[in-house]
């Protein structure tokens, strides 16, 4: 897929140094390889600016960084913090700090409401997403941590199971806007039985569950779109599930 989109992946590549020569950036790798390019994009997350902590008497979280706030996003009397800079208490998943566009929008709105006396807790489970070309994309929610146990359930993909098709259906390229807060209380598992796997290469869509103490705390939807309300409800319920294959049916992944 990456080669088809013109992407070359260099595995086990550690950068030793970068120099500029003859109008090109030269990336020197630790194993001796040299990569020449016009531009470099570095995606390493961020570190919140907490300079106001001392002058404002605000608490900085030692584990996650950012200003420590309560469930109402309040750092202290008459001071609220939202977005990437807020280390908030998630009433379902515990203390967290989140760097998502969806989180910034919703937490900013809630902080504004609470400034006017709403006193609402922040319960929203923000989602994030990425498209790896027109044919492969994912959406995720909750704690997606590679150190956690995972269970994946996959099915055969069709032409409609692509980011391109999802964008055309929703009319927007920002799926955090199209994946609304609609509740999923009426979700019913598909009665279509899971197919017998014959060739794993044919299975291009699925659901990956991340578990903590046998409870689902994170979900990745791989080429599965417009199902985020279902994922939110699963995390909100916080229940143990004996068979995650049955839970995966809630996402209708076995339907053509």
TrEMBL record:
GO terms for molecular function: DNA binding; FAD binding; NAD(P)H oxidase H2O2-forming activity; protein dimerization activity. GO terms for biological process: apoptotic process; mitochondrial respiratory chain complex assembly; positive regulation of programmed cell death. Pfam families: AIF_C, Pyr_redox_2. Residues 3-107 form the FAD/NAD(P)-binding domain. Signal peptide: none annotated. Belongs to the FAD-dependent oxidoreductase family. Functions both as NADH oxidoreductase and as regulator of apoptosis. In response to apoptotic stimuli, it is released from the mitochondrion intermembrane space into the cytosol and to the nucleus, where it functions as a proapoptotic factor in a caspase-independent pathway. Release into the cytoplasm is mediated upon binding to poly-ADP-ribose chains. The soluble form (AIFsol) found in the nucleus induces 'parthanatos' i.e. caspase-independent fragmentation of chromosomal DNA. Binds to DNA in a sequence-independent manner. This is Apoptosis-inducing factor 1, mitochondrial. It comes from Oreochromis aureus (Israeli tilapia). The gene is AIFM1.
């Amino acid at each position: 897929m990456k080669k088809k989109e013109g992407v070359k992946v260099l595995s086990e590549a550690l950068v030793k140094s970068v120099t500029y020569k003859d109008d090109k950036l030269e990336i020197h790798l630790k194993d001796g390889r040299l990569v020449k390019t016009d531009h470099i994009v570095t995606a390493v997350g961020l570190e919140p600016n907490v300079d106001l902590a001392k002058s404002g008497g605000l608490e900085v979280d030692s584990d996650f960084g950012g200003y420590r706030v309560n469930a109402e996003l309040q750092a202290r009397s008459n001071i609220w913090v939202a977005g990437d800079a807020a280390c908030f208490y998630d009433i379902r998943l515990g203390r967290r700090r989140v760097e998502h566009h969806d989180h910034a929008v919703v937490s900013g709105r809630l902080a504004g409401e609470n400034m006017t006396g709403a006193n609402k807790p922040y319960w929203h489970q923000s989602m994030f997403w990425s498209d790896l070309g027109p044919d492969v994309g994912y959406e995720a929610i909750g704690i997606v941590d590679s150190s956690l146990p995972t269970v994946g359930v996959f099915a055969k993909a069709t032409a409609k199971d692509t980011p391109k098709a999802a964008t055309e259906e929703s009319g927007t390229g920002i799926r955090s806007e199209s994946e609304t807060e609609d509740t999923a209380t009426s979700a019913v598992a598909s009665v279509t039985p899971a197919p017998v796997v014959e060739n794993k290469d044919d299975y291009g869509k699925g659901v990956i569950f991340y578990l903590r103490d046998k409870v689902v705390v994170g979900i990745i939807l791989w080429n599965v779109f417009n199902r985020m309300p279902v994922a939110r409800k699963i995390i909100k319920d916080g229940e143990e599930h004996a068979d995650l294959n049955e839970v995966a049916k809630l996402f209708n992944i076995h339907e053509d």
